[in-house]
Amino acid sequence: MNVNVKLNTARYCAVFISLFALFVLSVIWSINSGSVSIPVGEIWRMIFHKGAIERGELAADASAFNIIWKIRLPRLMLAAVLGGALSLSGFLLQTFFRNPIAGPFVLGISSGAKMFLAVVTIALSAWIPTVPVAVTVAAAFLGSMFTMMFALLFGGRLKNMSMLLVIGIMISYICSAVTDFLINFAKEADIVNLTHWSMGSFSAASWRDVKISALIVLPTFLCVFLLSKPISAYALGEGYALSLGVNVRRFRVLLILLSSVLSACVTAFAGPISFVGIAVPHICRILLKSSKPILMVPASFVCGAVFCVFCDLVARTVFSPTELSVGTVTSAIGAPIVIWLMINLKKP
Amino acid sequence: MDKPYFELRDLAVGYNGKPLLSHISLSLQRGGIMTLTGPNGSGKSTILKTVTRRLPAISGQILLEGEDLRFADSKAMARKMAVVLTDRIRPELLTAFDVAAAGRYPYTGSFGLLTRRDREIVLDALSQVNAADIADRDFSALSDGQRQRVLLARAIAQEPELIVLDEPTSFLDIRHKIELLEILRSMSKERGVAILMSLHEIDLASKVSDTVVCVSPDGISAFGKPEEVFSDLSVRRLYGLERGSYNASLGSIELAAPLGVPQVFVVGGGGYGIPVYRALQKAGVPFYAGILFENDLDLAVAAPLAASVVKCPAFGDLTEAHISAAKALIDASETVVDSGCPARGTNSAKAELLDYARSRGKRVVPGGASEVPS
Known about the structure:
- The complex is a heterodimer of chains A (348) and B (374).
- Chain A has 348 residues and is an all-alpha fold.
- Chain A has 15 helices and no strands.
- Helix content of chain B is 33%, strand content 24%.
- Chain B is built from 13 helices and 17 strands.
- In chain B, strands 6-7-8-3-9-10 form a six-stranded mixed beta sheet, with helices on both faces. In chain B, strands 15-14-13-16-17 form a five-stranded parallel beta sheet, with helices on both faces. In chain B, strands 2-1-4-5 form a four-stranded antiparallel beta sheet, covered by helices on one side.
- In chain B, strand 14 (287-293), helix 11 (297-305) and strand 15 (308-312) form a beta-alpha-beta unit.
- The longest helix of chain B has 18 residues, at 174-191.
- The interface between A and B is medium-sized, with 28 and 38 residues.
């Protein structure tokens, strides 16, 4: 037994070290690649001597400097923060529904956010040309909560998790129908933003986006991490959690709120990005050979960050200068992983 | 008598505010085993769900050491009461050790990390249920019996004063049932843990419990020591047994006697006749049996299964009246089965009966399932 405890610790350390290493690697690789090629040395000089360059003490190519600081870095950071948020949200929903394929996308939360966003965008287009970020976030957040509540309402009554998925998909269709209906009657110019948003992309990320999303995501991450103990008790089922002294009702509400905040933040800033939320927690479970929340919460977050930074890199470089939507890449990479895992998880 | 450790006072339980069972008043001492028994759907689980606070009580009180459970701190309560539920849990990638270690939840810090002492307690709990060897195995790959033991170890690791178990023997084979009940017995007697559980099997319930509670759909129909509560008749009434029967002293259950006019007479005694009675019952052949002393093991099976039994009082004398009664039944039969019991001492009348049967031209066959006439 003791030997095994040590072995597992070694595995956990190895997983976390490699995840962090991969993160650093993908960040470096990501900064270095793009349609405009900038020498590596130049990039590092621009990053580490930012102040000096800005004060004009050091000379640097102004357009390259802008590409690094105004385009690549914020985009990278946004991908990392939102990728982490997305997979953490997926982990929470999988825990909550005790269903391995639960996730923001499957349960219709993304389409709920999209519907609300469409309503808001079209309603406001008469008065203001561009919708402020705060309104976008609020609309997406409300939309996520709205669909989540619906899914829960029915899910609680059905007590059958496979029915819940069906209902999630139905809600998703209803929201899409409403959205399509609105788009039919909207002017092309008014919904350009919406169409672009619904592709799912980290492009056009600004430092303000990074700051706002980090301010939402990081404290939420901390809350989830602090909840790892009750989450672990919840893994044995509500009855056992209750008998261990977990306030199950409050815990469930917290879980829903936190995962909605996370997925709402992602959908607001980057649009619906599929499969990250489902695939990444599974990858982490397989890597760790454990589903202990105290490991899974940080691992999912870091792994999600790596996954999204990498997918975004693929999205903007593979067919450069044409940029793919990140949802395309996450699906193309994520879906086969999910299929592979579903088949292989069954084996002992 | 001390104040009871655990007490239900005029409790009403049910769903959605509608009482299913009411006026439940029970008490349990430390180290006592109380078993709820009764037919399916009578509300055993509902009582246990209410006790474990998964359902709100509709009225009345649940007291643990005199403290009302409704107002008790749930963390403090978790150190006193542990549960083994019927819910089939399927945790992902958790070992048996991890599942048992969940019992340490009320004792660990805010991140739930186990100390060396916690680990020792968990391992000790696992070895108490003979599951130390499977500690490293994936919980979801274990057999039902192993899972149930690990879940019991989880409850033990919680170091409770009261363990509540809902149908703990449901998915277990007979060996594991006995093992599990043995563990509960030693937990209660050696560590003074109070045990409240529900069991389907009245035979096991009567053997393991200090107190049994008969839960019937109309309420608690009986409460007390098993030997007081379980009589042949009370069990039949509790379960609404119209066919089949229960023997309280043996704790055994027999199926219903075959219907019809018997054509077979079984000469039994000393347990030799039992396989014959059972075989005839299975084949659906009605039969007579005799001559059996009332303390004969055969009678426990023959009485519920035979159409009629010629009985003789225990420690009494076998009289002509018994023999002529048996001869009358042989006259009414076509076949006589010799169960093979020795015709000696008090059983010497057997030879006389077999001779009589032959003299009347009846077919006399030896006992044993394969030779049973049909």
